[in-house]
Amino acid sequence: MGAKGEETRARLVRATRDLLEAQGYAATGLNLVLTESGTPRGSLYFHFPDGKDQLVAQALTEAGREMSDLIELLRDTRTAGSAQVISRLIGLLADRMEQSDYRKGCPLATVALEVSASNEPLRRLCADTYASWQQSFAELLVTEGYTADRADVIAGAVLSLLEGALLLARVQHSRLPLDQAARSAELLLA
């Protein structure tokens, strides 16, 4: 695929990611994706011959990878402990949410909640992505001396704390739940 084809594909995925995060799976129709991405219908089916679910899966995969990369970047560049790394991650997500006027939160949650009972491949993709984030948090804790079992339990609590705070912040149009989650993570890991 040439550079133009790669750019077209990237525009389709980027538009889909933005739409999914802001309005969910059902409200993200292919016509809207085409309009938002500025691409012709033929390009959509050239790059994603299996249609909407293939495009959504790619958008979720890239969103998940982006979050994993951010977690890894914070882990790799940290000079403070895990509590500060997690607090900084939550702060970055809070800033992102504020900048989007609370239209964006977790790049997976909107879709995960909507399709978990009706679309097994997308449910599994979301579950696997959440598991990889939890594993990243657990690995961070293990480097600080936590046992693997304890690190996994705490990482699960941190992920739950983060996801709940993102949901509440979006519903309340306030970053306060995220600020409280950051403080709670610091207390949990103190």
Automatic annotation (TrEMBL):
KW Metal-binding (keyword) present: no
Keywords recorded for this protein, A-Z: DNA-binding, Transcription, Transcription regulation
Domain HTH tetR-type: 6-66
InterPro entries: Homeodomain-like_sf, HTH_TetR, Tet_transcr_reg_TetR-rel_C_sf, YxaF_TetR_C
SUPFAM superfamilies reported for this sequence: Homeodomain-like (SSF46689), Tetracyclin repressor-like, C-terminal domain (SSF48498)
Ranges of the DNA-binding region feature: 29-48
Organism the protein comes from: Kitasatospora gansuensis
Highest taxon of the lineage: Bacteria
Keyword flag Isomerase: no
Protein's recorded name: TetR/AcrR family transcriptional repressor of lmrAB and yxaGH operons
Signal sequence region: none
Membrane spanning stretches: none
Gene Ontology MF annotations: DNA binding
